[in-house]
Design brief:
45% of the residues are buried. The chain is globular, with a radius of gyration of 19 Å. By secondary structure, it is α/β, with parallel strands linked by helices. The chain has 17 helices and 7 strands. Helix content is 51%, strand content 10%. The protein has a 4-stranded parallel beta sheet, with helices on both faces. The chain has 2 domains: 148 residues, Glutathione S-transferase Yfyf (Class Pi), Chain A, domain 2; 125 residues, 3-Layer(aba) Sandwich (Rossmann fold), CATH 3.40.50.11810.
């Protein structure tokens, strides 16, 4: 690592990106298991980019549970938390813990990815998927200030994509899509891969779908920071939700759209300041609950994890957190 100024939590994630091509440092094959039954071609001009957040969401939940517990019991108030030290001190084998979580079936959340592929196919798009060969976007490196490492990773990722014949990427993780679409061209001369977010595709083609949710439901939408502040995807999710019969979109009085409050996740913040991240999650959930919603809808794996944690902290059991991909897929079935 080329900077001692990087907080240890971020350094942990960055080291994993550099050495293992995913933020958790586990087997890429583990992350790709969600697509086994979907028969997605391993190479195509248009590929579905799943990204770390959704593919490794069960392991991320395990990591954050450990981080928040360790922050309170082992390190106390010392922040940023010392991942390397607590891992050694407690004798933790994180990849092994992640694998056990998966093998036990705990919190396996691949439904958003499956839903996205289903929706794309309904729209006439048959994407490929690089599976364990999907490169990491390396966004964590960029946001940690390790721009030389990010540039190196971006060039390697670009070569991998070009070798697979990729001309267009459709992705779902805001963090990844911002990196692939906006940051990669800053470091790669002649960057020629078209990058689109899943919601852009659906919003463009929404008139082709007749959508009806299985039962009347009241929903509110949480804007992921990357989507609203860096990608300007504000109206697209709302246009999609309003097009679904049976869905009543309700929003907080002013904390929505460009004024949406952060859930406390993303950019590695939750690994550097786990307790503060949890406080922000609870605050955001409280704001969203003011709408008397049945479902909190968002479109970011980090936000989903944070909002679910906020609901657990508040002991709210009658409100769901769902990805917008799941809502659209469910509305297609009726």
């Amino acid at each position: 690592m080329d900077s001692d100024l990087v907080p240890s939590g971020l350094k942990y994630l960055a080291d994993n990106v550099i050495t293992k091509q995913n933020i958790l440092g586990v087997s890429k094959e583990q992350g790709a298991r969600w697509a086994r039954k979907l028969a997605l071609p391993p190479a195509a001009e248009t590929v579905f980019f799943a990204g770390c957040g959704y593919q490794f969401s069960p392991q991320l939940e395990v990591l954050m549970s450990l981080a928040r517990g360790t922050d309170k019991s082992v390190i106390g108030s010392e922040l940023p938390m010392r991942f390397a030290r607590f891992q050694k001190k407690l004798g933790l084998n994180l990849p092994g813990i992640y694998s056990n979580a998966l093998s036990s079936g705990a919190a396996v959340e691949v439904k958003p990815l499956e839903a996205a592929v289903k929706v794309l196919r309904k729209l006439g798009i048959q994407p490929g998927y690089l599976a364990e060969n999907e490169p990491c976007c390396g966004a964590t490196l960029y946001h940690a200030g390790l721009q030389s490492k990010f540039a190196e990773n971006a060039r390697k990722a670009y070569k991998t994509l070009k070798k697979a014949g990729v001309r267009q990427i459709i992705g779902v993780v805001p963090y990844c899509i911002h990196a692939l679409k906006t940051l990669f061209p800053l470091f790669i001369d002649g960057y020629d891969i078209e990058v689109k977010h899943f919601l852009e595709i659906v919003a463009e083609k929404i008139s082709l779908l007749k959508l009806r949710y299985p039962h009347p439901v009241r929903v509110t939408y949480h804007d992921p920071c990357q989507m609203v502040r860096y990608m300007n995807l504000v109206e697209e999710p709302r246009r999609i939700l309003r097009s679904i019969e049976g869905v009543n979109l309700v929003e907080p009085e002013w904390t929505h759209g460009e004024w949406a409050t952060c859930c406390g996740g993303g950019g590695g913040f939750e690994t550097v300041f786990p307790e503060l991240s949890e406080v922000l999650a609870v605050n955001r959930v409280n704001e969203l609950l003011e709408t008397k919603t049945d479902i909190i809808v968002t479109h970011c794996p980090g936000c989903i994890m944070q909002l679910k944690d906020g609901l657990r902290k508040l002991k709210v059991k009658n409100v769901e957190v769902l990805d917008l991909m799941e809502i659209v897929a469910a509305a297609m079935e009726t």
